[in-house]
Design a protein that fits this description.
The protein starts with a strand and ends with a helix. It is of the alpha/beta class. The chain is built from 11 helices and 10 strands. The strands form 2 sheets. It has a 6-stranded mixed β-sheet with strand order 6-7-8-3-9-10. Bound molecules: adenosine-5'-triphosphate (ATP) and magnesium ion.
Length: 270
């Protein structure tokens, strides 16, 4: 459904941010893209809604070649929540910000009203509905960006560093949102430095280093490869570390803290 074929991207100043990247992402898949600062993660996901076009190679989204499709057309299908909220916010009020995208995509006013109320309520932004987005805290701004994109219900949701600045309650809520989207058959692509959050979703993990894909596979498999963890300077998820260091390790590493608790409680009382 998303096809990235031999993509190389060179910035205007000559920096090569992606080198010969090829990937396919299937519908309904949960994918995490991880890697050090400057590895090319943001550059890669900006290709998915056509904001960036490949210097060499080809990106196809729902059979549309991004070089021949407008960003507006692609964005309806691929919603990107950017790493830096200040690049995404420009309206006078929080409500306008959410409604703008919906109006742009031509939703009828009755639908706009419903989706706006849902988004404000769901992301805990109702009390700020008439405030300027610039008055929000960093974490609230990120939540607003998520609300804007989810309000138009795209097929693919790309989240670039969504946990930055979020407290534990909001992170847990975000995890639930992602799980709900996946249950609804949506495709979720998460870019993150937060290995614990990534691990908790048990996604396919794509590891990038210096503009290249250096590993691609199930979370447990990728994080268990020392050469990959070393090359990309990754922090191994703590639950994986715990799982493999137990005297009687579980058959499968603990996916979340609840699984770990259950296993530990039952093994202590054995
Ligand atoms: N507008 C730009 N002009 C020139 N070089 C850029 C530009 N944006 C990014 N780069 C360079 O491209 C490379 C990849 O950057 P990118 O933002 O994709 O990395 P990233 O993996 O998302 O990093 P981070 O984890 O810090 O968000 C880096 O070397 C960066 O310095
Ligand atoms: Mg980035």
């Amino acid at each position: 459904m998303i096809k990235i074929e031999s993509v190389t991207f060179k910035h205007q100043n000559g920096t090569v941010a992606l080198q010969n990247v090829s990937l396919e992402i299937r519908t309904g898949e949960a994918t995490a893209i991880v890697g050090e600062n400057g590895a090319g993660k943001t550059t890669l996901v900006k290709h998915l809604n056509g904001l960036i076009k490949p210097t060499e190679g080809k990106v196809t989204v729902f059979d549309l070649d991004t070089k021949q499709t407008t960003v507006a057309q692609l964005a309806r299908k691929v919603g990107v929540v950017f790493q830096n909220p200040d690049h995404q916010l420009f309206s006078e009020t929080v409500s306008d910000e959410i409604a703008f995208g919906l109006r742009n995509f031509g939703f009828p006013e009755s639908v706009i009203k419903k989706r706006l109320e849902w988004a404000l309520e769901f992301f805990g932004l109702t009390e700020y509905r008439d405030s300027s987005p610039m008055m929000l805290s960093g974490g609230e701004k990120k939540r607003l960006c998520l609300a804007i994109v989810l309000a138009w219900d795209p097929e693919v949701i790309v989240l670039d560093e969504p946990t930055v600045g979020q407290d534990l309650v909001q992170k847990e809520k975000l995890r639930e949102v992602i799980k709900m989207l996946l249950l609804r058959g949506k495709t979720v692509i998460l870019v993150s430095h937060d290995m614990e959050f990534v691990w908790s979703l048990q996604p396919r993990v794509i590891v990038m280093a210096k503009g290249r894909v250096v590993a691609d596979g199930a979370a447990a498999e990728v994080f268990s490869r020392p050469e990959v963890v070393g090359e990309a300077n990754l922090m191994k998820p703590q639950l994986l570390e715990l799982s493999v260091h137990l005297k009687n390790p579980p058959q499968k590493p603990f996916a979340d803290i609840y699984e770990a608790r259950q296993w530990l409680v039952s093994s202590v009382s054995r």
